[in-house]
Amino acid sequence: MEQTVEYASATGALSGIWLLVAIPLASAAILLLLGKRADKWGHWLGVLAVAASFVLGLVFFISLSGLEEGQRSAQQSLWDFIAVGNLHVDFGLLFDPLAGVFVLLITGVGSLIHLYAVGYMEHDPGRRKFFAYFNLFVAAMLLLVLGNNYVMLYFGWEGVGLASYLLISFWTTRPSAATAGKKAFLMNRVGDAGLAIGIFVMFATLGTTQYDEVFGNVSALSSTTVLILGLLLLLGAAGKSGQFPLHAWLPDAMEGPTPVSALIHAATMVTAGVYLIARSNAIFSANTTLQVVVVSVGALTLLMGCIIGAAKDDIKRVLAWSTVSQIGYMFLGVGLGGGAYALAIIHLLAHGFFKANMFLGAGSVMHGMHDQVDIRRFGGLRKYMKFTWLTFGAGWLAIIGIPPLSGYYSKEPIIASAFERGDWTAWLFGWAALLGAGLTAFYMTRLFVLTFHGPERYTEDNKHPHESPFIMTVPLILLGLGSLVAGYLMHTSVADWLVPVFGEHEEHHAVMPHGVINILGIALTVLGAGLAWLLFRKGTALEPQPAGVVVTAARRNLYTDAINEAVFERPGIYLTRALVFLDNKGIDGLVNGIAAGIGGTSGRLRRLQTGFVRSYALSMLTGAVLVVGAFLAIQLGWLA
Amino acid sequence: MNDFPFLSILTLLPLVGAIVVALVPKAKAELAKTIAFGWSLVVLVLSIVMWIAFNAGGDRFQFRESYAWIPSWDARFTFAADGIALVMLMLIAILFPVVILASWHDVEKSNRSAPIYFSLLLAFEFTMIGVFAAADIFLFYVFFEIMLIPMYFIIGSFGGQRRQYAAVKFFLYSLVGGLFMLAAVIGLWVVGGHTFDWTKLTEAASSIDQNTARWLFLGFFVAFAIKAPFFPFHTWLPDAGGAAPAGAAALLVGVMDKVGTFGILRYCLSLFPEASRWFAPAALVLGVIGIIYAALLAVGQNDLKRLVSYTSIAHFGFIGIGIFAFTTQAGTGSVLYMVNHGLATGLLFIVVGMFVARRGSNLISDFGGAGKLVPVLAGVFFFAGLASLALPGTAPFISEFLVLIGTFTVHPAYAVVATAGIILAAAYVLWMVQRTTQGTLNPALAEVPAMKKDITLREKVVVAPLILLIILLGFYPKPVTDVINPAVEATMSDVGVQDPGPTAVVANERVAR
């Protein structure tokens, strides 16, 4: 697909887009530098900074929509970031329709979650630091989506990785939290290395990393280069978005405070991989093999996430695996290409609402239940937590795709698109997506029923569950409303809005009539939900029960952790130990041995006293004179 | 302004300071420290003035001075600075006051003389400035050798455990390297027209016989590779870095080791272009091995100072491949790396020193959960770690990125393996941070009274300039790259190489910038 890409310069109100990043960054810096002095009011500054970015984002969004459709972009070069030889990298920003919807999602949902966190973190002595990190995250995430070149994207990309690390291991005294944070950062860095090499490939072949220059010249690349480049970007995307094979960090990331899980590990950061692929649509659309790989990763991950999610008993882990699975749908969408790019973004936005809503709901449940996370020990909470129950219910119906809630409008079109592929793979990926819908309905219903319905199964210290304060329920209500209507509101408007980025959608014929796919989707959803309702409406055993092969495998994350450990972790540890030994005994031992041998004082080097230095120096000097003499003799001989 | 004899004054100033401080009686330790600190600040101010006077777009070598020394050998006191030397001089001028302030109480625990210690630091600054400012090869060689003396005594007399062993090992290693270099220097004098002047020698370089040039290259290279150090000449550094006082260790890896990489750029590449190209594949392989090998070793260390020393060896691998990739991005990246590594690893060593001073132990296993006791210090430690793993927003990111992208355009395979080093860097930094400051509090640590005291005002003053510079240069590296660029481009043209163009772009199809 030939594409010319030109971005207009930022003018008028849009020349202030740098403020979007600068405001939360400044707030984070203030909160960190002032230290304890800001403890009393720091959280409000944090909320205010994100809210200010949201208001500005809205202003810029409206300004952008006021421009003619072909001109809807605003590029701003702040300063020369790197200029060496023929490498030029702007510290530059780009506000276009795609960046615009992300800005609104990040700052909009972000504001609500910040507000919620004021209540959630109220009794935590580190609340100010928490908001500093939270603001830092928002700033880095905005830089990620607003950069006008891949180096800026990488800058934000590693920045959100840092914020994610800091927030996962926020309760650093817990060894599990510290380990989970490190695991997240390391697995992300594997992806980051892929992204970095991708950037090197761009520079080596196209001489630039600016979006417009890269996208405009994709046609100059050989198809092998496009494939390699795309796979490298995909590796980065998979790392950040918790997709196979770099998915294992995301469920562990639930060690962080729940608002972190909602904002970073559900609504925004983990969707950065989808953003990367969507932003690079010119590259991914240029190679069909590449697209098949992306679709396969998405389809595989979405099924894996469903299967594992159905076997977990920790409310946040179920939601985390659900996130892995839902992002699988988004990867499926961006992999399908064409009109499905926009569909994936719509699902991403809708998911941002309903998954943030449910994570905050889970936090509200934990808040009222002494941080209990085991759904076996919940039950009947609808009586005690009306707001949480209703809003979580909205999220539940939205994610499983009950019409007319938001998941129906965002997920169903992706499934239909999978059936529109031109060959037999339409059946493969289409049915994978359909099956995923049924499984999603099953595990989400299980989660919902076990938590809010059925008999009460509380532990001794948890006899009096209570609803959360208003500062937490208000964001829940707003996000709950979003879960209800966002999909309907966005499904055509956002698709049209994104036309300047992805191009016009060409109609394809599906291998099955659209109506049939639609009915099948709803039928499978109802089937999955109904089955879960029947199985779990009377509660469940309080302890994990012996299970068959499939459930055991699912409980153990389909053995992916075990494989990581066996293939990377253990050999890595052994290799490190072996090298430490080798370096001390081998290389260094060799050197010491030679030194001792020459001096004829074997073993004495370890007991050397200063007195020996002089004799050593003397013998070295003698040696030096000899070597120099020999050298001179040879040189003069040659010269003669 | 450019006629002002910046370089000779800058070189001699710390020597005078060293003598003055040495004359202070042992009992008046505070006076000696204050003089030393003030003196290093004067050097810093003069360096800043010199930085401003330097014209980035002007001659390759500026502030040239030359005085007679040994006429019969044509050895002269010649000083001159190109952009590469200038940024290194600036780094020295910044690091010394910081280290002097950081080392304020280092001598108190032992019964040794504070005036001597701080005099040695200034003497070391004299040799460091001299070695980077020299433009006469004999003068360079002399500085190259005498810089061992102050550092030998700093490690041997003021160091920690196994200091004697480490000092001797450090001395012998360097001496062996110096020996090779001495041979090469004399050889060069013989074949290069009986002069030690760098400029004259580069002009004569093209007439040197190919084989001879390769041998001479090797003589210099071995000396520099030991100094840097590159794999497999590295084993002296963990011992020296582990035994040296933390501040001196910061100078050791932050400044002194750069003499090796600086020497390669200034002497190996420009004097022996053909030999440089011929040896480049081998040097690249050593660099790549060093990155991976030293990073894996860093992961496995249980001694904070040895760990940081190993990370430095990995970083020198990056500098090495950047130099021998022969592209402007990689070359400029390498020089920038030398500066940024000085700031970042300097900071890391200094902060490690603050931990070690409190705990009285280098061993990671003696820490654990320290963040609960000293949160701010732990935060600074974490920041230094982030800079060391080259996170965007910190200066080392720019240099690492430049080295890798510049190397990739000519040697993609090496660049890809080297990029794996950034994953290992995250591993050694985060694991170090986790074992030291995170997790449950080590009960033995909680009982150490000094661990109850978080960062002091003096320590804040020490770390603040480094943190500021690391962030500033992480967002806006241009003032430094603009100075480095012309010197690197000149060096690349000495070597006779040009950057490859983008492989896939047809000129007329490019979107105009």
From TrEMBL, chain A:
Sorted UniProt keywords: Membrane, Transmembrane, Transmembrane helix
Topology term for the membrane: Multi-pass membrane protein
Principal location listed in the UniProt entry: membrane
Pfam families recorded: Proton_antipo_M, Proton_antipo_N
Compartments in which it is found: Endomembrane system; Membrane
Domain NADH-Ubiquinone oxidoreductase (complex I) chain 5 N-terminal: 81-131
Source organism, top-level taxon: Bacteria
Transmembrane segments: 12-34, 41-64, 98-118, 130-147, 185-206, 218-239, 260-278, 290-311, 318-338, 387-406, 426-449, 470-491, 511-536, 616-638
Ranges where the NADH:quinone oxidoreductase/Mrp antiporter transmembrane domain occurs: 148-431
Protein name, UniProt field: NADH-quinone oxidoreductase subunit L
Annotated organism of origin: Paractinoplanes aksuensis
Name of the gene encoding the protein in the UniProt record: nuoL
UniProtKB/TrEMBL annotation, chain B:
Primary location group: membrane
InterPro entries (alphabetical): NADH_Q_OxRdtase_chainM/4, NADH_UbQ_OxRdtase, ND/Mrp_TM
Record's bilayer topology term: Multi-pass membrane protein
NCBIfam families for the chain: NDH_I_M, PRK05846.1-4
Protein name, as recorded: NADH-quinone oxidoreductase subunit M
Listed GO MF terms: oxidoreductase activity
Protein EC: 1.6.5.11
Signal peptide (residue range): none
Subcellular location(s) of the protein: Endomembrane system; Membrane
Domain annotation NADH:quinone oxidoreductase/Mrp antiporter transmembrane: ranges: 134-420
Enzyme class: oxidoreductase
Superkingdom to which the source organism belongs: Bacteria
Bilayer-spanning residue ranges: 6-24, 36-57, 77-102, 114-132, 138-158, 170-192, 212-231, 243-266, 278-300, 307-326, 338-357, 369-391, 411-431, 461-477
Family classification: Belongs to the complex I subunit 4 family.
Keywords carried by this UniProt record: Membrane, Oxidoreductase, Transmembrane, Transmembrane helix
